[in-house]
TrEMBL record:
Residues 344-419 form the AMP-binding enzyme C-terminal domain. Residues 1-20 are annotated as: Disordered. Residues 106-284 form the AMP-dependent synthetase/ligase domain. Keywords: Ligase. GO terms for biological process: fatty acid metabolic process. InterPro entries: AMP-bd_C, AMP-bd_C_sf, AMP-dep_synth/lig_dom, ANL_N_sf. This is Acyl-CoA synthetase. One of its GO terms (molecular function) is medium-chain fatty acid-CoA ligase activity. Coiled coil: none annotated. Belongs to the ATP-dependent AMP-binding enzyme family. Transmembrane segments: none annotated.
Length: 425
């Protein structure tokens, strides 16, 4: 996947270039052209109950340029609804029985061509970030024909990345996974010939954990990871299953857009990418262990250097993204511990499918490192040991400084996942 140089907005074209691409929603094959026709107020905050309505709203914006905030119906609680109405949006709930509109008390003029995204809210309540269809369309030029899987929640940045590819590029088919299909998506993907899929590391780990054999039957030629820190263990597991595929990881956010793309099969990005000027490309920097990005794909009002809130560490010739600044660092008796690096040590264990590392209050030290893990099913025991707390502590003790070794490790039976396909690690 190659990022393109931004171009001026073209909102309002009669039909987008990919309008005749097939889209599979709810197991039914349609085309973009065959999606329901909508009549939307402007500005509209559209609450979509499922993928069909979400895609219809995306196509409506591509044709008409109506100011739009699109999200899944379940993401908007009463407080968010009130916030949207106060910001001048007409809140529109779509459904087969028609559209239900709630009008704002103080209407305002619409901004043609504006698209709004709600952030994931991982650091608090979701925020609105402004974009256009062009700033969200970062892949341009001739592309090999692909059938893309889209498992993301409607209206998120990752959702728009996959959707704009199909909407604007001929030959880019789309298979959308509804929430109730997530557990068995490989069967759906295999049935519809999916050969390219994008998901978070948790999405891929959960699929490997549930049925690696079913995943191997999907004819994937392109695998993409993003939305969370990407470690070497998950890249290696996917490479073992799909040795001929291209495996990429992307750093992207609503604020700075798709800013980093790595295809070399290694976690992190090369150190020599830091502070490297390149016209039309993001500039990556590190300040006080925080990733700072100046990006041409930024959201409205976010020009210039943006502090991402993500913690990075330079290890050898790579820059590793370890987690959020406010949650990655654990202070153990005055010594700093990266929760992300401890997590990477745990997931490197051949019998660990997933791990989460946090800090817990402790006497004398102030905080201690604790973890949760999910074992890999049907894996052969490592060096003859059962996978229990004591064995994992020994594994970590041989690879981490003493203050970074988890003091409590709880074994779970299922990989937790949120609507965003993240585990909140």
């Amino acid at each position: 996947m190659t990022l393109a140089t931004p171009r001026p907005s073209t909102a309002g074209q009669p039909e987008p270039a990919g309008v005749d691409n097939p889209v599979v929603v709810g197991g039914v094959t349609l085309t973009w052209r065959a999606l329901p026709e909508l009549t939307l107020p402007a500005p509209a905050a559209v609450l979509a109950p499922d993928a069909r309505w979400a895609l219809a709203a995306a196509r409506h914006h591509a044709v008409h340029g109506t100011e739009l905030l699109l999200t899944g119906a379940g993401r908007v609680d009463e407080a968010m609804r009130a916030e949207l109405l106060d910001a001048g949006f007409t809140v529109t709930a779509l459904g087969d029985s028609g559209a239900a509109h709630s009008s704002p008390a103080r209407p305002r003029p619409a901004e043609p061509g504006r698209l709004w995204l709600l952030t994931s809210g991982s650091t608090g309540r979701p925020k609105r970030v402004g974009h256009t269809l062009d700033s969200l369309t970062t892949v341009r030029g001739a592309q090999p024909e692909r059938t893309w899987l889209c498992p993301y929640a409607p209206g998120t940045y990752a959702w728009w990345q996959v959707v704009t590819l199909s909407l604007t590029q001929p030959g880019q088919r789309l298979v959308v996974v509804e929430p109730e299909q997530l557990d068995d998506w490989p069967a759906l993907a295999a049935a519809h010939g999916v050969d390219a899929a994008s998901g978070t590391p948790t999405f891929w780990r959960r699929t490997l954990y549930r049925d690696a054999a079913a995943l191997a039957r999907v004819p994937l030629r392109q695998l993409t990871l993003g939305g969370e820190p990407v470690d070497q263990a998950i890249l290696d597991q996917l490479r073992d299953l799909f040795p001929a595929a291209r495996i990429s990881w992307i750093y992207a956010s609503s604020e700075v857009g798709a800013a980093i793309v790595v295809h070399d099969g290694r976690a992190g990005f090369p150190v020599d990418w830091l502070d490297r000027p390149a016209p039309g490309r993001p500039t990556l920097s590190v300040r006080d262990e925080e990733l700072v990005i100046t990006s041409p794909y930024h959201g409205a009002g976010l020009a210039g250097a943006v502090r991402t809130g993500d913690r990075v560490q330079v290890v050898g010739d790579r820059v590793l993204i370890t987690g959020r600044l406010d949650s990655d660092e654990i202070n153990v008796g005055g010594s700093k511990v990266s929760a992300g690096l401890v997590r990477d040590v745990l997931t490197a264990h051949p019998r660990v499918a997933w791990a989460r590392v946090t800090g817990r209050r402790a006497p004398v030290l102030g905080r201690m490192v604790v973890a949760e893990v999910v074992p890999t099913p049907h894996a052969a025991p490592a060096v003859g040991e059962a996978l229990d707390e004591a064995a994992l502590v020994r594994w970590c003790a041989g690879r981490l400084p003493e203050h970074a070794v988890p003091r409590r490790i709880r074994v779970l039976t299922e990989i937790p996942v949120k609507e965003t396909l993240k585990s909140d690690v």
